[in-house]
């Protein structure tokens, strides 16, 4: 069993929030994540809901800012929030940009040099981390959901659409839904995957949903005052893709909200409930 | 009217959160605060609830971490969170310690040199700031409550007990209730007020409650796993003081909780409701 190092633990809403690190076989170095165990987990295994954060975030932002523990405790869901990339890998240039490298793993398995040696975030999220959670925390391994914000919304959609049996539910806040068609995604995919755009399709939610569909309705909240809306996020592309294959999508435009965690906190209850209904 | 500079504004729980700065006549320099206007404030004046933060905090911590906006929106209360001291005053040594000077104003009016020129936090909180809020935001000026955390719990208790007509309600998370009897308080009062301990009594909640009482029940939550409990916080001293004058006090020891904002978030709903009942 993987050995976890406990960084810190806090009682929160009658459950326990902990920050942990471990040596990742997938990313070949230390990775960190946070787990909120609701009070119900003291007595029985509970469903688990993964949150993937956006650019520049660590495993902390969601647990500090989103106000999710209140609702995870109410609905009896375990929350897992991960870091957004490997760190301190020694790869030259990893800290040069805020939207590539450290803090910007984009939830792909890099195939291009020099990133492929450590930047295996897709396999980490889909395979290694769930195994670690199942081995160390009281979860129902057959009841997993996933959601995320911005780059992490992209990651959540891709992980869920490609692994529908593993993830019973998916939702996102202001996700990058069409990374092949926006500057953030093009920069990340060029760097991590190389210039053959055929290899990019496996990580583009708007492409994937047309090929694969998803077994249940997808919830997306998007603020209309989000400064990244038209250049980077482009929810209309995912809406069109879903419509073309009759995929149920609940895309809600929230008037006046921006890209911040104040937006996420305002609608986190709806997202937790969306997952709780699917997982309970 | 005082001119406010808007630093940033965010839609949050259908209301508006803003961060502002202004030139303080009391503290003789720039001061910052945050205001959450609940959705009700778009239509009518609402009661206002002040939050005073603890050591090292700015006007941001409470608004980012406590999850209070959710309940302020529900109960129709405006929230105001202040910075914890003047900053960049030029006073030699202001940044030398984390528990004195910058980030540690202790909500007193300093009388000792060199601090008295800027460190007038008591008058700022009780007089200047409420006037600025009343002039710039839609509040019911006769309906104000106050609460805080740690050093800010001390500040809230002192402000309320000394100004019972101004503050209709008071509560605190893990407050310093007897600063004359703990290292943090003794250091701060020696530095800001000088060595005549008679002058300290005006800022010690356990002394003040015996002299003045308070017109309504006081709510205090205190975590039992708080590492500052026995040396710095000493809620039993305030409990004894309240008992000696038959002051109603609801002191709740919360098993296993520490001194963090995860503790505050876990019980913020109860505190907002405590104030809403008194203010509505």
Automatic annotation (TrEMBL), chains A, B:
Molecular functions (GO terms): carboxylic ester hydrolase activity; S-formylglutathione hydrolase activity
Pfam families from the UniProt entry: Esterase
GO biological process: formaldehyde catabolic process
Superkingdom of origin: Bacteria
Annotated InterPro entries: AB_hydrolase_fold, Esterase-like, S-formylglutathione_hydrol
Cleavable signal peptide: none
Active site: 150 (charge relay system), 226 (charge relay system), 259 (charge relay system)
Enzyme class: hydrolase
Protein's recorded name: S-formylglutathione hydrolase
Classification lineage: Bacteria, Bacillati, Cyanobacteriota, Cyanophyceae, Nostocales
